[in-house]
Amino acid sequence: MTRSLPLALLVAGLTACTPAPPEQLAVNQAAEALGGRDRLLGIRTLVLSGEGTQWNVGQDMTIDATGQTFAVTGYRRAMDLAGGRMRVEQTRTPNFLYFQGQAPQTQAFGLDGDVAYAVSASGGISRSSAQAAKDRFAELHHHPVVLVRAALGEGATLANARAEGTEQLVDITLPGGGPFTLALDATTHVPTRIRSMAAHPNLGDVVIETAFEDYAEVSGIRMPTRLITKTDRFKTAELRLARATMNGDAGDIAAPEAARAAEAPSGPPPVNVVAESLAPGVWLLAGQSHHSALVEFADHLMLIEAPQSEARTLAVIAKARDLVPGKPLTTLVSSHHHFDHSTGLRAAVAEGLRVIAQQGNVAYYEEAVKRPFTLQPDALARNPKPLTIEGVGDMRVVEDKTRRVELYHIAGNPHADTLLMAYLPKERLLVEVDAFSPGSPVHPYAANLLQNIRDRKLRVDRIVPLHGTVVPFAELVKAVPAS
Fold first, then answer.
1. Which of 167, 259, 351, 480 could bridge across to 117 with cysteines, CB 3.0–4.6 Å?
2. How many CA atoms lie within 13 Å of 229's alpha carbon, on the beta-carbon side?
3. C-alpha separations of 198 from 177, 180, 354, 369, 376 in Å
């Protein structure tokens, strides 16, 4: 006589036989390769420590140069995985000539839920923006143990399992952010890298990728001891982790009360543009840390520098048009490629300005104008315009019947290979940035600037720095020992 199985038992048996979706299978395999689901879910805190290298991305000699680095020591990343908290502490020492000198720099910043904060070297606390909190949430999860553990938890959404070369990939979206793309070795199922998207003010939509190498076992969990991070094609950091501690004392990583009580900045600080007349038809557009200069010709205006932010550049352009409403602003002279001095490039192109830059910057500027900005659309994304650009090799003269401006490459400068300076011979004014910044405690690039001026036999009365205040030429001479 055949008896029917109870319905609940039958359903349970059928469910047990149902294979997991490929996305869940990939996460399960990753968890098993790392040490097992139960062990991962049992991790409450994780503290990583070690040392490494950071690259001076966007601030090196050329856009693709990799010679300028910071040695990272005392790296400590403490994470409360259940509470969504993280605090990172490190010391950076530059291996190159630097504005602030080559003394070590201490850094500390953290995340507590939706509160991002920073701690200054003197101990001051500031709350960071909501965007910074999102970026740090991503940083928290750019570790295989942290991401796979989160993917096993409530609220995680898994999608788009696929193969790519020798890797398996799966997309993971968490309640606090994502998606993250987790890549696994197709044979061992050990995580090889994590990718996520971010918005960059100069590069637009970028892929942040952290690759994992040299796994070692720690209390039954496999942990990578080498983390390599890139932003698109740019290598940004490499960490060598000497120690990993699970479920130990992570320290006090809660957001300080001063940060929690403060309002998160809702956007960039207000822009302040102050026009200072330097000579008839020549103005310094100052008011904050990064300045521009405006030069009037017979039938048009030239802007020298579009720095710091899109908002700053648009405000500077508006001020220029207010100062000389009867003439079109047609030209931007960009001093060099460094991110803090070229952030306004796309805004200037959106406003219809043609660009003059040192020849070494042309290819990067062409790329920058074409890059997608969909995550945070900027002025050029909203108002697309083609780039018109002219590269300057050693020297270029722009003149008409009323004005002459000579643009020179600052040859051999240890700050950047692509620096331009602007000389106004009638007014004996030299407009430059980063080569000499009056008021700075150190002047590592001033000797080279002075040598370039002397080699060119330029007769300079005043230096117009786009950091700091206008000073007599004698101040530059004084800043260079035995000049």
1. 259
2. 19
3. 11, 11, 29, 18, 9
Q: What is the pLDDT of residues 138-157, one digit of tens each?
A: 999 999 999 999 999 989 99
Q: How far apart are CA 422 and CA 428, in angstroms?
A: 11
In the predicted model, what is the mean pLDDT of residues 380-389? 97
- Whether 12 shows a pLDDT value over 60: the answer reads no
Q: Any idea which architecture 19-261 has in CATH?
A: Clam (2.50)
Spatial separation of the C-alpha atoms in residues 330 and 384, rounded to whole Å? 17
DSSP3 helix / strand / coil % (the chain, rounded to 5): 25, 40, 40
Quote the CA–CA distance of 171 and 193 in Å, as a whole number.
12
Residues 352-369 pLDDT 10s: 999 999 999 999 999 999
Whether the CB-CB separation of 428 and 460 falls below 8 Å is answered with yes
306 touches 347 (CB < 8 A): yes
Predicted confidence (pLDDT) per residue in 179-227, tens digit: 999 999 999 999 999 999 999 999 999 999 999 999 999 999 999 999 9
Where in the sequence of the chain do the CATH 2.50.20.10 domains occur? Answer: 19-261
CB burial of residue 148 (10 Å; 0-12, 13-18, 19+): buried
pLDDT of residue 97: 83
- Give the integer Cα–Cα distance in Å for 389 and 381: 19
**Ramachandran region, residue 189 (left: φ > 0; alpha: ψ -120 to 50; beta: rest):** left
- Report CA torsion sign: 137, 139, 143, 144: positive
Q: Which residues pair with 75 in a beta bridge?
A: 50
CA 355, CA 333: separation in Å to the nearest integer? 6
Reply yes or no on domain 274-479 having CATH 3.40.50.1980.
no
Where exactly does CATH 3.60.15.10 map onto the chain? Answer: 274-479
Averaged confidence pLDDT in the chain: 94
Q: Which of 234, 245, 169 is nearest to 206 (CA)?
A: 234
What's the pLDDT tens digit per position in 258-308? Answer: 999 999 988 778 999 999 999 999 999 999 999 999 999 999 999 999 999
DSSP 26-62: HHHHHHHHHT-HHHHHT--EEEEEEEEEEE-TTSSSS
- Cα separation of 411 and 418, whole Å? 8
In terms of DSSP bridges, do strands 429-432 and 462-465 run parallel, antiparallel, or are they unpaired? parallel
